[in-house]
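S2.1 Query sequence (DUF885 domain-containing protein)
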Amino acid sequence: EQQKITKEIAVFDISNFIKETEEFPFHNYPLNQIGGIHLNVVEFMTDVHPIRNVKEAEAYIDRLNLFDDSFKATLETLNAQKKAGIFPPKFVFDHVIRQLEELLNFKENENPLRSVFLRKIEDLNLDSEVSSDLISKLDNAIENSVTPGFKLLYDFVNETRKKANQYHGVWSLPNGDEFYALRLKVYTTTDYSAEDIHNIGLSEVERITKRMQQIAFDLGYGDQVKVGQLMNSLNEDSNFLYSDTPDRKERVVADYNSIVEETWNISELYFHNMPKSKVEVRAVPEYSEQNQAGGYYMSPALDGSRPGVFYANLYDIKQTPTYSMRTLAFHEAIPGHHLQVALNLENENLSLYRRFGYGTSAFSEGWALYSEILALEAGLAEDPYDELGVLQSELFRAVRLVVDTGMHYKRWTREEAMAYMKDITGMSDTEVRVEIER
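Output structure tokens follow.
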């Protein structure tokens, strides 16, 4: 039975991949402000690559020496995309240029590729001669591979920025409507049209808004309050915000870890199995926090050497009102992404393809959204403001159905989509901008 399921998944996955590769080879953007290669390689080296001995330290340096070659290969794709007349919107160029400038201009002791390496080899207690030799090789790799590689990308985007797409939706790309229909199929695993999804979003917005209005009424805000305005006012309320002190990020991360620990203990009462791998909370790295989502998850190493990580974006104080923290922790960690992903990785009854190869938002994000409601039902968000936070998160997902189809199918501008999301959800300006630009 499992083989039949695996075959069905593989046929769906591979057939869609082939169609996209053959018909839309240049419709995705290798350089973007969320998951561009310039960010992914740094995150892999600093957060994933192990350095537990000299051999792994040398492998780290070897990979840094491949940055230049890797970026040259990316440049070939970018030039082919340029020849096809496909360019990202201007805001993508602007964010990527700023990120590359930061990556190129780190002071030596601030470069995460260097500082993480130094911290990890210090833990190895190496002889000073061995340590000095490794650091010398590291600095040479940064100077002769990493920096020239980033400079290649920087020069390309700087020169190409003037050709940026003046529109924001994929409808403006060659055969953009067909490409969008395929992406909807891949992400939803359905044959729903863009119009269908847009209408589902509108219906869900109405349903969730009514429930939030009822809670607001019970809290004494009256029966005429607009949900978006209420949530926006809560974002400005100092009762729900951390004070902007030098240790703010450390305090928020500590509170998030406490929420995750509490939720883990309660979840053991609801699930027969819990992951062997633990999960921890970290702040989004500063080099990417201005354009990163409010939170995201990185899966653990299968051998247990690296935990799962819930990255919380702490760039803007108003992105972290206390009433929204529990639901984000539920979504990204337990019982959300970490429970589902880690158990899947640890399930030896599944094929390697099912454990490592295939994933779809329809399931992973569907589970994470369900987990927010499950946590609410388990009594983990009994404060009515916390429940508003859970519902705002659900409302945000419904709004994304509307704005995604709005931009890519109904030809809304970025500004129209931002205005709609802000009006309906009351999310902070930073959150709205980042989410629309994703």
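Residues 192-437 form one domain. The chain has two domains: 27-166, 192-437.
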